[in-house]
Structures are given as C-alpha cells and as structure tokens.
Design brief:
257 residues; two-stranded antiparallel ribbon; 2 strands; mainly alpha; 12 helices
Length: 257
Amino acid sequence: MTTLTERRVPPLGGFNTTLLSIEIRRMLRNRRTVILALLLPAALLLIFGGQDGWQDDAGSGNVAAYILVSMAMYGAALTAAACGSAVALERSLGWSRQLRLTPLHPVAYVIVKTLTALTLGGIAIGVVNVVGILVGKADMPADVWVGCAAMCLLGTLTFAALGVFVGFVVPGENAMQVLGPGLALLSFLGGLFYPLDQFAGWVRDIAYWTPMYGVAEVVRAPLTHELPWYAVVNALAWLGLFTAGAAWRMSGDTARV
C-alpha cells in the first residue's frame, strides 16, 4: 500500500499538453511578447530588405531572400528568448519554488518553456515570411523557402533554451535587459546583419565560436547551399549547453528571489 509519505512520479516527469497550452495562452496575453513576435521581425525585414542591391543573386535566390531568412531568425530568436526568460518573473514571485514542491521534473519544466517559446518563435517566422511574400522582393524557389523556414524554427530551440537559462540566472525584469542587447550583439557577430566576410579576420575568429553563427549557417543552408561542418557542431553544442544549463539551474532553484 502506498503511504502518505510516498510521492508517485507522474508520466513523462509531469509534462502534459494541458500545462503546455496554459503556458502558451499566458504568453500570448503578454503584449510585449506579441509585439516582439508580430511587429519587430516584420519591421526589421522592411528596413534591411529595402536596401540597394536586393536583386543581386545569393545562392538559389536573391539578396532580399537572404535578408528575409536572416531577419526571420533574429525575430524568432528574440521572441523565443523573451518567452523563455519569463521564468525570471516567476522566480521573483516564488512560483518556481512552488513547482519544486511538485513532482514536475526540471527537464519537463524546461521542455514546456522551450515549446512555448518555439510556438511564439514560429509566429515570428510566419509573420516575416508573409510580409516577404506581400512585399514581393524576396525571390527563391518554394522548396527553399519552406526549407529555410523549417530550419529557422529548428534553430529557435537554441535561443528558447538560452532564455530559460538567463531567466534562472538574472533576477526579475532584468532578464530581457540582458538578452535584448546580448542577442543583438550575437546576431551581429553571427552574420545575421552583415556577412562575415566583411569583417576583419580577428572578428571572424571570434564569430565562429558564438551561438548565432552556427544557427545562422544552418538556417540559410537551403538558400546558400553552403554548410561548414563546424557550423553544425557549433549549433548543436550551444543547444546542448543552454538546455543543460537551464535544467541545472532549475534543479537548484529552491529559494525565493
């Protein structure tokens, strides 16, 4: 017979679709998150995509298509990181400590946060692509368009995990104050705003080790047909590090902050 002192571990560590749907609806009610997901990526595309030379060839498309994919990745990364970093507010309210008193496994909690961020990141990707279609400047084959969008969604996982990790490290509202400028810098170094071949050699040497570099190369691979093996290693390594760091911090987060 089960005693009162025993606690039965739920299937999948406590992960379930009900918890996931509640988290997604909660984030969609956040105006700042919706603005990041809907307005910022589209605005970036219109700003950068209207520059001179957008009709020049780039892989199997044109420069406008190259910029579209890059801005979709930046918008998705920023949105996903913002969703993940919402854990900082939960910590400040003591909610994460309450969760530690339940059978919810730290990995299951991180997965819920990551999937929520992935959903909002997917919205950002969709908005950028719709705007790109409506504006009509981006030109690439349909299969390349779909492939880049799919890779972009996959790459969003890295920054969703980063947001959760930062949310456990940085207290309260300061999380996005760190992530916002940080992601802008990483995107600059990763070649989202400017091609890396325009940078000095020592800057490129640093860029190859940054989290955005590998993801950016993977995301644009269907368009550029270029994917160095070390870019794949970079992307997988940072995804693993951020996910492990988020799970580790959640496991030790028992105090109200």
